[in-house]
Design goal:
Length: 247
């Protein structure tokens, strides 16, 4: 592993264990036993490092989505991406916040782009590639006649908004720590969205039932540590990290 790769891995570890704002050149250099100048040599400064960390996290996020196998039902496949999305976010909550700029570092400026105007959510190829997987899943559902609409990008944005909003609320503790919100909030919301887009109500309900069973089987096989109560303490959105517990 090159020095640059070691710095990226160390940066991701610090972010996940201590939060994005705990990361600085001195801490990162100490993690790999190097001098602080090493950070500037490889990234030109902390801004360059943050961008590298965001890019790498999106790559891993994309790999998690790609790993989802297709079924005989394009709507089930679409919902399965939402399951993988949530799993990634709960397993790596601090990295997830960094990806979407929900920290005090301004990393959202690296990602944000007007999806409704340009058809892409980001100027970063790694971020756009993850969204393209969602857009392609939507297009398959459109092609199969399960849902209806003229703009796969806009519809993908609707599903993205659904899962992203739910995940942030869940990570902040608004739906508890046991995943109950998936069955009482997320699944019904997704079902309503599908029906609103023209899917047959019975087929939409069946797809939702199948995906809930699949998600439960994955959770049983590999429980997510991020569901522990401590990981769901509300974050201070101004600083991008959770407040310290009172003593």
């Amino acid at each position: 592993m090159s020095t640059k790769e070691r710095l990226i891995e160390a940066g991701l570890r610090v972010i996940e264990t201590e939060g994005a704002e705990a990361l600085n050149a001195r801490k990162l250099a100490a993690e790999i036993g190097a001098s602080t100048t090493t950070v500037y040599t490889h990234f030109g400064g902390m801004a360059g490092l943050y961008e590298a960390l965001v890019r790498q996290t999106f790559i891993r996020f994309g790999e998690a989505l790609t790993a989802v196998e297709r079924t005989d039902d394009p709507v089930v496949d679409l919902l399965a991406l939402g399951v993988a999305y949530r799993e990634f976010a709960l397993a790596s909550p601090q990295r997830y916040r960094l990806m979407f700029g929900v920290t005090g570092l301004g990393s959202g400026a690296l990602v944000a782009q007007d999806l409704t105007a340009g058809g892409a959510p980001s100027g970063l190829a790694e971020a756009t590639a993850t969204f393209d997987q969602l857009r392609e899943a939507v297009q398959r559902a459109l092609d199969a006649g399960r849902i209806h609409g003229d703009d796969a990008t806009a519809i993908a944005g609707q599903f993205w908004s659904t899962i992203h909003g739910f995940v942030l609320l869940e990570m902040s503790g608004f739906f508890g720590t046991e995943g109950h919100g998936v069955t009482t909030v997320l699944a019904p919301h997704a079902e309503n969205l599908l029906i609103g887009l023209g899917d047959d109500p019975e087929k939409a309900r069946e797809a939702t039932r199948r995906i809930l069973e699949w998600a439960a089987s994955r959770a049983d096989a590999a429980p997510m540590p991020a569901l522990a109560a401590d990981t769901h303490r509300p974050i201070d959105v101004r600083r991008g990290r959770r407040p310290r517990p009172r003593t």
